[in-house]
Fold this protein.
Amino acid sequence: MAALDLLGRRWTLRVIWELQQQPAGFRELRRRCDGISRAC
């Protein structure tokens, strides 16, 4: 759990994973992560 605390917000790991696969802008990231909530 400490690792998640260091990384910060709720969806940080998912965003990092998506960007690792292929660079993307904000709109593309939102499209790829369609199943996650917008609330932080």
